[in-house]
Amino acid sequence: MINLDGMPLFTNCSFSNNQATRGGAVASRGYASIVMENCLFSGNSATEGGAVYIQNTGSVDLSNCTFANNSATVGAHLSALPVTEEPYGIDRCIFAFGSPGEGIFWSGQGNLTLTCVDVFGNAGGDWTGAISDQAQTGGNLSSDPLFCGDSNPAAPFSLSAESLCAPDNNAECGLIGALPVGCSGFSGTNDLPIASGLQLRPCFPNPFNPSTTLSFELSEDVKIDLEIFDASGGMVCSLVSGNFSKGLHQIIWQGRDDFGQTVGSGVYFARLRSQEQSSVQKMVLLK
To answer: How far apart are CA 157 and CA 38, in angstroms?
Structure first.
């Protein structure tokens, strides 16, 4: 689809498994001012802008959209080349698991503002290039969105209740993405069985004060990182980073950040990740 002028409005749309040279689902190369709300883009592919390619002189407003599993060499999900100072705004959107390019490509020209945007798991990089200075600002995060996958076949890109993109876990932004919570736990696409990787078990005690024990199991020797995040997606501390052997391991978190300071009451998330996989658990610190 190519828009040359006007002001197209896309709401509550789903674009899946489309192909093109530029913009697998939507391409705009004119004067159009584009608005996209509550749209899902999945499995689309192109050479540039796997789902959406934009090169125009109009404004762009994307809100509560989910981009997942799209592919392009440049901008796995989105390639934006403004030729104007008109605002490009991306708000409460998810850009996850794209390949082989970066999640979002922006030429660096014009005025692009990202707010409450989750960019995660993209083969060519997440907060890279011209958008790197907006990482961890304005509610932006890089966190596994924890899509439901097989736990909700009717809505595989809905969110697990434990996702940082779920409104109950993100007071600053509310819902991030096009679809609401559709499952709980981690039996979906991002919770791989221990036979093929790693598993972070629920911490004990939970809620806790002042410390809790995190247990994780590995199916093979692997380098892992175990990190703690707050409810807004900001990193609190890195508990461990290094090579661990196959089997069960336990790590105690004392409720402190990387500077040794005691953190306040609230919801926190532990994320265990290797180069290929990740697993997340929700924790509550009560004082």
So the answer is: 12
Return d(Cα 117, Cα 95) in angstroms, integer: 8
Q: What is the pLDDT of residues 181-209, one digit of tens each?
A: 998 764 333 333 333 478 788 788 888 88
Q: Distance between CA 175 and CA 155 in Å, rounded?
A: 16
Domain ends where: 164, 183, 202?
A: 183
Phi and psi angles of residue 91, each rounded to the nearest 5 degrees, phi first:
-135, 130
Residue that is last in its domain, among 140, 155, 183: 183
123 contacts 159 by C-beta, under 8 angstroms:
no
Q: Are 181 and 158 in contact (CB under 8 A)?
A: yes
Rg, Å, the chain Cα set: 19
Based on the fold, state whether residues 176 and 200 are members of the same structural domain. Answer: no
Q: How many residues make up the chain in this entry?
A: 287
Q: Which residues pair with 243 in a beta bridge?
A: 223
Is there a single domain that holds both residue 32 and residue 123?
A: yes
> Are both 42 and 85 inside the same structural domain?
yes
Rounded to an integer, what distance in angstroms lies between the CA atom of residue 203 and that of residue 254? 12
Domain count, the chain: 2
Q: Residue 176 is part of which domain span?
A: 2-183
| 69 closest CA partner among 93, 45, 90 | 45
Q: Is the pTM value of this prediction over 0.70?
A: no
Tell me: the pLDDT tens digits for 202-256? 788 888 889 888 888 888 889 999 999 887 778 899 999 999 988 888 888 999 9
What b/e string do you get for 266-286 counting C-beta neighbours within 10 Å, with b at 16 or more? ebbbbbbbbeebbbbbbbebe
How close are the terminal C-alpha atoms of the chain, in Å?
54
Residue 7 within a domain: yes
